[in-house]
Design a protein that fits this description.
alpha+beta; paralog of FGE (formylglycine-generating enzyme); four-stranded mixed beta sheet; globular
Length: 576
């Protein structure tokens, strides 16, 4: 919504009379909110203000921008929220843009009626960003592969025909099967959401049911957003797509990589360890590793440390074995060739075409293409890579290991803090005075343009690690538990993933205050870190909203077992 343009009187009169008024009272929460959250707030919300216009709050929506108000309760003709919806499809100012798909007439009628009725908006309501469901792309394949074979003109089980919009909405002994904006009254959703052993489950277990959880979620979201079904789209039964990708990235592959690492790694004792500079064999991208001696330290922060939170204690003694750690955060130069590949890939990252004779690094699961450049315009050459899930970071480590013959992984939470402290016990490795932080870190007070910077431009910590505080937050291997230190105190090396969230990130970032950059500060990942991900189900590779999150690699001196190696590289991929 880059600018507002008044409609001509003729066009406005036509638009206001073109569709019958929605007589019933429009409910904001169940009708208007889903439309705005799926079609508008990704460009005009809390995170983005395209055209200097936001509509995630009532105040922002009313304010509009320099060209006029976005909402005038009671008057659609003066509300850009409505007038931009009814512009011709080829108009540059039509909203949403044609390339994203215009709103359906039924959705526009709801917006218009809501404004006419006074634009009721419950106090304190703030809109989020939700994936927009496209019938043809998202819903049609589910219905054609799972439902139409039993619900068509030739075989109308339950008297329900799903071949056309009119029949789908009006036929069936459970009619109405689809009620726009109301999943709870729509049998299409309620029957697919039943337990697997329920006799009323659709499709039945004997017919391939239940649907996957993400498919049920798509149907629910589609109905919530108005159940838009283009009149000209007819459904025909199709064979269900195969789900087995025969992924070669398995334990057998890790056995081959493990054997290569055992044969390649020459250092046997701590005394053999030296810091080194090298290159990614496949791409020539340089990276540096700092040798860190083993030792014992106090994990966590003392009770009286300023900025401390309860999950940083109680402090425990932890014994750390020697390892190398990345001198810098992993940069786009290193990570992008792993992220962007020419091969066709399944959603799990496996190659669609492969041979058992391929090199191990070419059989490792790698990210599917991102929906937009993941640096979000902040810079690539020499800048830290960002927005990857913990799973993606783990797979990068496996990919690098398979090429180099050195075992790389993410640091455990204890290893990260041990390296960050560099033998110190104060809040920061330089002491307790946060006023010195600007010498060592990019954070809220000094980050240029409120974004990340090229790595290595600040002073390192005593052990030679750059940007260990600030710039971007860094993944660790551990699942986040508020009381996780109790497990570590019992001798656990790291806390493996059992749920998709949360995992631990450390170090703070360019938009953080000093207390989040302390050596002991912990951050727990959450679903909101991929809130704007447009995919359903959401990607296992990208955290679209974590534009401040990257990672740093470690290489332990001790080579683990095949099973331990496999566990570390496949941690953090639990399905949502």
């Amino acid at each position: 919504m880059s600018e507002f343009r008044p409609l001509t009187p003729a066009l406005l009169s036509l638009a206001l009379l073109a569709s019958p008024a929605v007589a019933a009272k429009v409910d904001f929460a169940t009708q208007v909110k889903p439309i705005l959250e799926s079609a508008c707030t990704h460009c005009h919300g809390a995170e983005k203000d395209k055209g200097e216009f936001r509509l995630h709050t009532l105040e922002d929506l009313k304010k509009g921008n320099d060209n006029g108000p976005g909402l005038v309760p009671g008057d659609p003709a003066k509300s850009a929220l409505y007038t931009t919806l009814i512009l011709p499809a080829d108009d540059d100012l039509v909203m949403p843009p044609s390339k994203e798909g215009l709103l359906d007439k039924s959705q526009i009628e709801v917006i218009k009626a809501w404004i006419e009725q006074g634009a009721d908006w419950p106090a304190g309501t703030v809109l989020e960003v939700k994936p927009r469901i496209d019938f043809v792309k998202n819903v049609q394949p589910i219905l054609e592969q799972n439902c139409v074979s039993c619900h068509n003109p030739e075989k109308d089980k339950g008297d329900w025909i799903l071949s056309s919009r009119k029949e789908a909405f009006e036929t069936g002994e459970n009619a109405p099967n689809i009620v726009a904006f109301d999943p709870a009254k729509s049998a299409l959703y309620t029957l697919t959401a039943l337990a697997e052993d329920d006799d009323d489950l659709m499709p039945p277990a004997k017919s391939g049911g239940p649907l996957k959880k993400d498919e049920v979620a798509i149907l629910k979201a589609w109905i919530e957003q108005g159940a838009v079904w283009p009149e000209d789209v007819k459904l025909t039964a199709r064979e269900k797509a195969a789900t087995d990708t025969n992924n070669p990235d398995n334990l057998e592959l890790v056995k081959k990589i493990h054997a290569f690492i055992v044969a390649t790694s020459k250092e046997k004792a701590e005394a053999d360890m030296q810091s080194y500079e090298t290159k990614v064999p496949k791409t020539g991208a340089p990276y540096s590793m700092i040798a860190i001696k083993g030792g014992e330290f106090q994990l966590g922060s003392p009770d009286k440390e300023e900025g401390r939170t309860d999950d940083e204690g109680p402090q425990i003694k932890v014994q750390i074995k020697p390892f190398w750690m990345g001198k810098f955060e992993v940069t786009w130069d290193e990570y992008e060739p792993f992220q962007l590949t020419a091969e066709g890939r399944n959603k799990d990252g496996s190659r669609k075409v492969w041979s058992p004779d391929d090199k191990p690094e070419d059989l490792i699961s790698q990210p599917t293409p991102p929906y937009q450049p993941m640096d979000f315009g902040m810079g690539r050459n020499g800048f830290p890579a960002i927005c990857m899930t913990q799973h993606a970071a783990n797979k990068y480590c496996q990919w690098l290991s398979a090429q180099t013959g050195h075992y790389y992984r993410l640091p455990t939470e204890a290893e990260w803090e041990y390296a960050a402290r560099a033998g110190t016990t104060t809040a920061f490795f330089f002491g307790d005075d946060a006023s010195q932080l600007g010498e060592y870190a990019w954070y809220f007070e000094n980050a240029p343009n409120f974004q990340y910077s090229v790595v290595g431009k600040k002073k390192p910590n005593p052990w030679g690690l750059y940007d260990i505080y600030g710039n971007v937050c860094e993944w660790t291997l551990d699942q986040y538990l508020p009381d996780g230190y109790q497990q570590l105190a019992s001798g656990t090396k790291w806390i493996p993933s059992k749920t998709p969230y949360p995992h631990v990130a450390r170090g703070g970032h360019y938009d953080d205050d000093p207390e989040m950059l302390r050596s002991a500060a912990r951050r727990a990942s959450e679903p909101g870190w991929k809130q704007q991900d447009p995919q359903l189900p959401k990607s296992i590779w990208y955290l679209t909203d974590a534009t401040w999150l990257g990672f740093r690699i470690v290489r332990p001196l001790e080579i683990p077992t095949v099973e331990e190696m496999f566990a570390a590289w496949n941690n953090g991929v639990a399905r949502e």
